[in-house]
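Exercise: predict the fold of this chain.
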Amino acid sequence: MKKNPFPLFIVLLLFLAPQLGKAQASDHKVIVPAYFFPYDNANPGKHDVGPYWSTLIDAAGQYGDRLVVIANVNNGPGDPGNAWATQKYTEAITKVRKAGGIVLGYVHLCYGLQHSSAACNGRTLQQIKGEIANWHNRYNVDGYFFDEAPTAPGKLQWLKDLDAYTKSTVAPNFEVLFNDNGTLVTDPNRKLYRVMHYGTTPGQDYLNTAAWVHSVCEGPINLYPLDAGVAPNVDAALQQVGYNTQQMQHKQAAAMLYQQGGLTESQKSARISARLQAQLESGVLYHDLNFTWDTVEAALKQQGFSYLYVTDDGADGNAWDRLPAFFWQLF
């Protein structure tokens, strides 16, 4: 049997590199589409809300408001008649928020009610406003993730009017953070988050609304190139969604990238092993290593994104039904 010429401690450093590299201060926020139910009978998790929500609670305790979680009960706040779902989401959302994290409620805008799809056909402005109110009244979320926000010039005022409605709806008691056994915990300076998820770069008139976080990128990327010396192509992923670097300068921008399809778990594992082996054989020190996910994160931050999420999920067709294997490295 051939012996590895490199000491064991170098191998350990390879796997500890992401954690050690994160010791330096970061200020970006990790925005997580938490589209998974907060309970798993086989694995209830540390906080009894399933393994993924339990991880989010721990992350909130460690990183505070740098963690931004998008809650989605059922394409929105869900049916209040489903007592079990309401109970578990209330529990999970409250625990994340009490630990210091931010939770946003998912609201589907259907590109300003102009999108023809199974989820949008027959949808009304009244339904959208009802969901905004329900997220606030039922779960006391910190803000909203407005999916399929419009980008058409004629829809800007529509979106501004909806934003005004959102602010007025939550205003009467938004300063109340929690009801802790009858004692109201308040913060008069509590921030109302509004993330507009366009999926592309909208016109400058949209971007001029400084209070909004502009989510302009949701797309696939190959996190595990075949050649161990090739980094994931972030620029190509951004170009696919029409990202305009110049327009987005000094804006609050969000990006969410997921693993493109066509790559099996065994292929992914083989490519990770090849990359690690190449780094081992190079003899480089741990602080010089460049792991795949760190490469993508660094490239997104260089492009000006302050809210980001990268996941190795997605090859199965659903990018948001679990947390990535490298979740903790995203911070």
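Check your answer against the key: The mean pLDDT is 87.
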